[in-house]
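Sequence in, structure out. Go.
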Amino acid sequence: MRTLALIAVLALATGATASTDYLRNQPMPDLMKVLPAPPKPGSPQDLDDRATFRETRALLGTPRGDMATRDVTDDRFTVFACAIGRKLDATSSPALTRIFARMGDQSMVGRAKDGFAVKRPYLKDDLPICEPKTEHLASNGDYPSGHTTSGWSAALILAELMPHRATQILRRGRQYGESRYICGSHSRSAVEAGYMAGSVLVAMLHGSAEFRRDMEAARAELRHGASSASSAAQCTAEADAA
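Output:
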């Protein structure tokens, strides 16, 4: 997944590694007991998931479908640039970069994916999606959505750091999740579970003293750092697409 690869590069740039996750060696909530069970085959929610998948294929190739395609690979700084009203990177925001690199969201989600073992929607209905149908994608479970977990947790953190932009940030975080079923890589129920998983993750992160220290440092960066505007044309296009 290119998004995670970009985060790994940012982590190396700030001295963070996978072994320095904020929640390393900490007991984590069991998402299989926290999240609602995935829809049973033939249930109303399952039928809604399959109908949503089929109907949203028409969005591929539209501006909203293109946005969903970009959301597959764009890093968090790029995804939220318009929502926060400025461009950030590892140089201008090292503390925020550390936060994104050390959240450790994928291990918690991975255990739930393996446990629930839900197939992705395109494996049930063979229709186009917005990213390559790789063996890795097929073997990585649908429920809950890891992209949504990552995006929603980032939105919660950014909204806490920039409360004056909370509406825009949280709206973009929701859209980032919706991009996953618009893309066709996830079911809508998996996206909804991803929002909950992201909230679980952020609640746990606040128990880490290291995370809280980095949040204070990131808050200072955002308060004192120079602001560079995002592309007005890009932001207008994003707003129109959504």
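Check: Residues 14 and 40 are 44 Å apart (CA to CA). Confidence is low (pLDDT under 50) at residues 1-19.
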